[in-house]
Amino acid sequence: MLQLVRQQRTRYTKRQKNRMDIKVIRSRKRMRTVSARVEQDTLIVHAPAILPQERLDKIVLDFKSRFERKKLKEDLKKKQDLAQVAAGLNAKYFGNQLKINSIEYVTTQNRKFGCCDYTQARIRISHRIGLMPAWVRDYVVVHEMAHLIEPNHSRAFWNIVFRYRLAERAKGYLMAAFRNSDL
Q: Which residue from 13, 49, 154, 167 could staple onto 26, CB 3.0 to 4.6 Å apart?
């Protein structure tokens, strides 16, 4: 539905289940930039009136994707604090000998389940792991924590990882999840 309001055209799209509303405000005064913000589950996009609709649709999809990833990351952080998970696993499997500078979910990591920068003691876990069972998440965290001791996948590394009793089961789960994904 298009509506002309004081030199602005506004277009609304219907809300889908578990999706955000989108409100596009076109302005004749705005010449080049497109901006967006989220207010109460509504993505508000300000765009120039002269911007072609095809181009605007691509920009809106990009904004929507970014804001949804950000919200997902915040929701996962609220649901399960990875720092607490890592602290518990550090105590149980590593005798509290590991120092982790940061551990967080990331939404930009789509080909790997986890990543460890052992020189900086930073661990990043894919947001996809946060959507899997806790025992799978724990395996991935233990796997990445083991890289702080052994940076490669040597026999010594796997001996550390297999301290986690569900390691083999979790590996199978991840292999099946990867095979069934659209990667």
A: 49
Pair (73, 146) in one structural domain: no
Instruction: Tell whether 123 and 58 lie within a shared domain.
Output: no
Contact between 123 and 98 (Cβ < 8 Å) = no
Map tokens 């789509």 to a residue.
110
Task: Verify that 114 and 92 share a domain, yes or no.
Answer: yes
Q: Are strands 2-5 and 8-13 parallel, antiparallel or unpaired?
A: antiparallel
**Among residues of the chain, what percentage have pLDDT more than 90?**
54
What is the Cα–Cα distance from 180 to 183, expressed in whole angstroms? 9
Judge if 126 and 52 occupy the same domain: no
Return d(Cα 21, Cα 152) in angstroms, integer: 46
Strand 102-106 versus strand 122-126 pairing type? parallel
* Enclosing domain of residue 8: 2-78
pLDDT tens readout for residues 68-124 = 878 877 777 777 789 999 999 999 999 999 999 999 988 888 788 999 999 999 999
Q: Starting from the edge strand earliest in sequence, which strands make up the sheet with 2-5, in order?
A: 2-5, 8-13, 21-27, 42-48, 35-39
Residues facing residue 8 across a β-bridge: 5, 27
Name the pTM for this structure: 0.68
